[in-house]
Amino acid sequence: DRPSATPTEEMNGAGNLMDFLDEPIPDVGTYEDFHTIDWLREKSRDTDRHRKVKLQYVSVLLILKAIMRLYTFLCLYIFSNSGTLAGVIDLAVDWMTDLKEGVCLSAFWYSHEQCCWTSNETTFADRDKCPQWQKWAELMTGYNEGAGAYLLNYFLYVMWALFFSFLAVSLVRVFAPYACGSGIPEIKTILSGFIIRGYLGKWTLLIKTVTLVLAVSSGLSLGKEGPLVHVACCCGNLFCSLFSKYSKNEGKRREVLSAAAAAGVSVAFGAPIGGVLFSLEEVSYYFPLKTLWRSFFAALVAAFTLRSINPFGNNRLVLFYVEYHTPWYMAELVPFILLGVFGGLWGTLFIRGNIAWCRRRKTTQLGKYPVLEVIAVTGITAILAFPNPYTRRSTSELISELFNDCGALESSQLCDYINNPNMSRPEDDIPDRPAGPGVYMALWQLALALIFKIVITIFTFGMKIPSGLFIPSMAVGAIAGRIVGIAVEQMAYHHHDWIIFKNWCRPGADCVTPGLYAMVGAAACLGGVTRMTVSLVVIMFELTGGLEYIVPLMAAAVTSKWVADAFGKEGIYEAHIRLNGYPYLDQDEFTHRTLATDVMRPRRNEPPLSVLTQDSTTVEDVEMLIKETDYNGFPVVMSRESERLIGFVQRRDLILAIKTARQKQDGVVSNSVVYFTEDAPQIPASNPQPLKLRRILNLSPFTVTDHTPMETVVDIFRKLGLRQCLVTRSGRLLGIITKKDVLRHMAQMMNQDPESIMFN
Questions:
Q1: Membrane-spanning residues where (predicted)?
Q2: How far is it, in rounded angstroms, from Cα 519 to Cα 531?
Q3: Neighbour order of strands in the sheet with 617-618
Q4: Residue 29 in contact with residue 702, Cβ under 8 Å?
Q5: pLDDT reported for residue 137
Q6: Neighbouring C-beta atoms of residue 345, cutoff 10 Å
Q7: Stretch 591-595: mean pLDDT, rounded?
Q8: C-alpha distances in angstroms, 693 versus 116, 238, 708?
Q9: How many beta carbons lie within 10 A of that of residue 759, not counting itself?
Q10: Helix 514-530, helix 572-580: angle, nearest 10
Q11: What is the crossing angle of helices 333-363 and 572-580, to 10°?
Q12: Among 244, 310, 434, 479, which residue carries the largest CB count within 10 Å?
């Protein structure tokens, strides 16, 4: 016979009582979609994991450390092979962009440049012309000249562009809606602790890679550099799932994603150092020192992989390698700063125009027809772009030509200068010369291209296809910079006796480099749109190899930021974060004199705070509270009378714990008492078996007093990555402040709509 229970056991009903949470439950401690993670909780969980490893494997601790390092390097190496994806994308874009104009007869998968490389009949003077490459009109009709051939090439160019864009938007809409856009606003939000399930998934990676090639090849005013950050983060997230250290801890996962973002910029521009600084300055929210070297390693491997593929065909890592043979002079800082002013004004115009258009897309019927919008914008872009040779070519080729210096062997229209027949100078030291008719024609075409790019980019960015902003912004600045550079060059040539030119520009000297002005203008416009400074300058000199020109780049970048900040502090990515209502706390100072009691809930005339008691709530009460509310968690108090705070429990953990208990623990019914104390409550033996849930209780929730200034509360939320904090007075619970409450209050203080913060 079973021995009789002791009186204490009969009173407590604890004869066979067990804490079923002694064994971890799957998914406890995880988060719902569109929710914010708790950084302190994730840090604590990682510390617990380290402690368990040390306790269980003391004898083999060194081996385990070596294995973890190997896993870390392996993980970083694998996802850093986003360099391979970037190389494939570059090669595919070159081929499909040229496919709109013609085809290589010897090998249809060759781009125009590759086709003529392999030809034995190509001369240096006509290196872009070879019999193996034929335009569509010549292939179909046998004629390459005349109005008929021009119109046929025009028609097929538009048709190919429409086909590529239609295929891209259709794939995004059907298979991966998250594959649209740049991805950087969402990456910033995810790295700040927000959960967007599926945004970094396998389907998103596959579809974004394919549609990025299609979108860029269609000729739309967009780039692939921003989306490559999203692609790299998808790779990082994919391989995080292979290791429990990262897959089960959202904080550790975000350290890897920060490194992945650095790898994305590294392969996008061939700028590994700039990629690390971009992740630190622009994207990452939490960037500890160990993440810095991981990012550096990731960027290194990604850049090495890209260099091995050699997608640019110049045996160089950088996208726009240039060699200038003339130093810059102090007097040139004036036009450089003016280009910075232009970049700031362009950034302001673009952000306001694009946000207004995107808001209209969200709030009107336009948003219901994404395919039609993409087709319409592509059609307008292709029809207007084809007649102008500077808008017909790919934007990367355009920027490369604008950056180049005019050497003796250049055949570009921009280099059509009138040469002095008596000139006897080395080929790399050509003096300033008067502009020929080709240069003036190019200036008119560039002016039209500038207006076209400014307008069409506003309507293109944000459509339901992958669309980056780096290259279009650089193109606008490069066009403006080249125009200014040629103007300064001609002024210096024709008016070298003016006081501003007298000291540094003598007749017959090579004084002004228009390509340098294009490079400075590109940096200024990109800085005006994104508000980047340090990482922008490093990316630009890595991108071009122009290490000597850091000071002009710095002057333009700082000026563009100052001018743009005068009209609004937000860059384009922050503006899109606010437009989409993501819960992102920016780094601007909160200067209003409000207190925690002004922001906490419940407010006056609101129902009291929903709480759980430590040992007098039943399972039925908990399930009813979960059913009737949508809160993400509940404070646990000693009793409803005292309101003394004990801890905080997450809603998702409660649901999973009760569900698992009903399945695995006998005797748990609706009348079972839920207790969060170490010892079971005193209940009669006839009552159902109680349920102990102490393990899921956070015994050290972050608290502030009701008189804590909101300036301090906002700073705490930023630096500690809090999901919520509880408001107390002398240990008694008064209310709760969530991240959403903080964002709403900040919006209200800035006279914005507090309901624009849509997500938890």
A1: 55-79, 154-179, 200-220, 256-280, 329-351, 371-390, 442-462, 469-488, 516-541
A2: 17
A3: 617-618, 673-675, 691-692
A4: no
A5: 86
A6: 18
A7: 87
A8: 72, 33, 32
A9: 18
A10: 30
A11: 10
A12: 479
